[in-house]
Amino acid sequence: MVLTTPLISVLAERYGPVDVVTTPAAGSLLETHPAVRSVIRYDKNGRDRGISGLWRLSAELRSRRYSVVYLPHRSFRSAVLALLSGAGERIGFGGTAASISYTRRVPRPEGGHEVERLLALFRNPSQAARVSLGLTDEDHRQADQWLARHAMAPGFVAVAPGSIWGTKRWPYYADLVERLARPCIIIGSAADCDLADSIVTAAPTRAVSAAGALGLRAAASLISRAAVLVTNDSAPLHLATAVGTPVVALFGPTVPAFGFGPRRPGDIALGVDKLPCRPCSKHGPETCPLGHHRCMRDLSVETVAAAVIAVLSAEESRAICPRN
Ligand code: SF4
Fold it and tell me: Closest residue (by CA) to atom 5 of ligand 1?
């Protein structure tokens, strides 16, 4: 969803702030974005489950009398919803069964970053676009309060060790935190609490866990105060991109060429080169099908620490000699 914000922004430039249909979790991230007029939450696994939920939501969309719907998501359910919305124009990517119902089918670019691929729905994907969030004063206040409560000053290293895909998790974050001579804040959702606690236990004088303590936007505000974020190929990478925090991203079963890598000049993406099994899946399986998980285990703490130090040094030089 974060990577959809450039498309949302260019659509808002053309039409004015847009309405977005999305999951409740992503809705909280988007509801304050300046290019978004309103978020329509589709709880497809809960309240809006099944045909009755789809029908209820489509009735709501019909009542809003949209003239055009853009479909960055290629699911059959989204296509049905767009059709039932009554919008005269339905624009999405071709090449799927769902696309038969669209009024305009755009070829989905094979390569490039996901941001540019999504922008192809609207116009020339080579045009510049910025990933962004609409963080509020309240989001920043919550992040400030959390930092004050834990006696943390800006300039810390943010570490995001989690991922819903097991093989995407680099196993050596605790060693990295011990090695870095900086305070570290562990970022993550409530599901990452145990993992975050294990890192804090290994380096109690260096690390504090913010996992599960803040909402998504306040967590993004926290990331914006970090000197650098170290993360797997997971959502915090994109939050950091949106708030302009430098990134060291660790790729295991996936690769940046899939289109979800860091975008900021100076960011570093690391992975184990020349491993014949890599990449092995679109998302990364829960467990390594070969049993060795070398795509992550062979990525050493020394390599990651050196990348973090290189990013920190580059940022410090930039602060001393600001570019015009
Ligand atoms: S098969 Fe290779 S790329 Fe996939 S999880 Fe295992 S080590 Fe990583």
Answer: 288
